[in-house]
């Protein structure tokens, strides 16, 4: 089911990181994330993905990385696009130097730009526009996964470059690496929280594209669903992503390693980073799920109310405010993340291991939000449409 990995790790190459570097070693403290990131890349550009060509996918990748300010990644995709034999007109369009050569490419690059810049605007009409140029469910999921993955890749690249620019951090002891941060004073506000369209209530999600039917699912699709979670088969979102089982499988491995791996940043703070990204992207569903998880782990929800109300000033401690600020910069303007943000994190008590865990969590939800926002919509448990988040 898995594709053989390319000889060169794309993230290592683009930062760059080489064996022997402290940051290369730091990244390998989370080997499952390293492997699943590269495995996702391999799946996104596999030749056998039906309905959307390798050239079209590489053009979208170049366009996204150029718009995201990730010049080394853009150079990588430009080189691959040219080596695949793309026409000069296609390369120029993907590079933002000319109009798209045809209606289909224009639709793909337009959708890429919308999801890259402001994913909340990629609504049902945007999906219908792709359907009008011939994309079937398998291709729609492939396109959505690709753009969402690129958003993750751009932010992981930015976070690692910021860590590299900051230089070596203080030595971390084994005890520090697994230690929990001092907890703020407990503050549990009355539930539910409802602010600006965001809530910590339990929501459901309704797809705009027909999910895989379990009775018709292939062994690969069922295996990918099982790898995500014991309940994935019961959720329309994961059955929809199962149209591209290898992409789902690699994403599932990355998700579980990023959010649940022991040691490093406390899990509640990873959930906070995920909630920050979801709030700033306007993903009401993801914000609700991860606000709930933060509350369950931290036994408090005061910072969630602050975040829903005013993200720029959210946080109850110096450390928490730093986590929110770093998450916001990485989420909204990854090219602006730099050494100063890493130095601020160190001053607030975050080890570099914890900062990289936070980078992974925020990048992961740049991925998750774009799928949730652009392949369906949040609904209440009674089936009524949830209020749209106000940014």
Topology of helices and strands:
Layout: H1 10-14, H2 22-27, H3 31-44, H4 54-67, H5 71-83, H6 88-94, H7 103-117, H8 124-132, H9 137-166, H10 174-177, E1 194-195, E2 198-199, E3 204-207, H11 219-228, H12 236-241, H13 245-260, H14 267-281, H15 284-298, H16 302-309, H17 318-332, H18 339-347, H19 352-375, E4 376-379
Antiparallel strand pairs: 1-2, 3-4
Helix pairs in contact: 3-9, 3-13, 4-5, 4-6, 4-7, 4-9, 7-8, 7-9, 9-18, 9-19, 11-13, 13-19, 14-15, 14-17, 14-19, 17-18, 17-19
CATH class of the largest domain: Mainly Alpha
Shape: globular
- Give the name of the CATH superfamily of the largest domain: AhpD-like
Radius of gyration: 20 Å
Count of helix runs: 19
Q: Main sheet? A: 2 strands, antiparallel
Q: What percentage of the residues does DSSP assign to strands (E)?
A: under 5%
Q: What is the strand arrangement across the widest sheet? A: 1-2
Number of strands: 4
- Could you spell the SSE succession in H and E letters? HHHHHHHHHHEEEHHHHHHHHHE
* Distance linking N and C termini: 40 Å
What CATH architecture of the largest domain would you give? Up-down Bundle
Quick overview of this protein structure:
With 391 residues, the chain is mainly alpha-helical.
Structure description:
The chain has 391 residues and is mainly alpha-helical. It has two domains: 10-163, AhpD-like; 188-379, AhpD-like (Up-down Bundle). It contains 19 helices and four strands. The strands form two sheets. The protein has a two-stranded antiparallel ribbon. Strands 3-4 form a two-stranded antiparallel sheet. Helix 14 packs across helix 19 (352-375) and helix 17 packs across helix 19 (352-375). The longest helix is centred in the middle third of the chain and has 30 residues, at 137-166.
